[in-house]
Amino acid sequence: LLAGGVSTLLPDDRVMSRQRIGLVEVKGMITDASETIRQISKFRKDSSIRGIVLRIDSPGGAVAPSQEIYSEVLKLKSQKKVFASMGSVAASGGYYIASAADQIIANPGTLTGSIGVIMTFANVEQLMGKIGLRPETLKSGKFKDTGSPTRPMTPEERKLLQSVIDNVYDQFVSAVAKGRKMEVDKVKELADGRIYTGKQAFDLKLVDRLGSLEDTISMMGKAVGIEGEPKVVQEKPSRGIFDLLMEGSLSERVMGSIAPQFPLLQYLWTL
Hints:
The chain is α/β, with parallel strands linked by helices. The protein has helices spanning 11-17, 34-45, 63-77, 93-98, 125-130, 155-180, 184-190, 198-203, 213-223, 241-246, 249-257, and strands spanning 20-27, 49-58, 60-62, 81-91, 103-106, 111-113, 195-197, 209-210, 231-233, 266-268. The protein has 11 helices and 10 strands. It starts with 10 loop residues before the first helix and ends with a strand.
């Protein structure tokens, strides 16, 4: 300690303080962007963090949170290098986010792609008829209850919703084209909702390299000029009992496949 109780770094400490790489996980269904954005922003402002690795293991999720994280990654990329490391699944919204990174590294067996938009509805009209329940709806305009589960969708409503989906799809394609520096028409050729393995995605230029998380960290270290092994800095969020029960990918996929109380636009790979 210096006089007055102010600490100082020894030479070795100074070296280690410049050897740091931030690691941010995007895991499971993407339903909220706030925590991921907070972590990215924190590492972006930390001068001791030389670069950031995004570890993505997600089938995607809601459109808006995926777009918010994508935008934050672009902001990060303007100041520091950011690599995306794909885990078991980095599809749809997961790929959307990855496409903003400087480089994407996937395992050969990673499931990725699924570039597209989905909006799911449930119709319970026949069930309600069986139990003798007949709903009555008052509305201010003919499209106000579009997607109602209590009646069939009209051709006009279907056309309206398809136009919304097409618009959000175009946003997805444009974001990927910008992030990957590809022509929009080329992205559209690959963006029919199908999934790819990491090896297939690499061959199609959707992924830059094949490798593991450790490979990605090593690549990042070399890219930012770190000598030796980088020190990885990662926040470990506190998890409650509900989080522990629901953190399994199977539970998340089941939850994601159940139609919500109201339709959601989703960048989501689902069976």
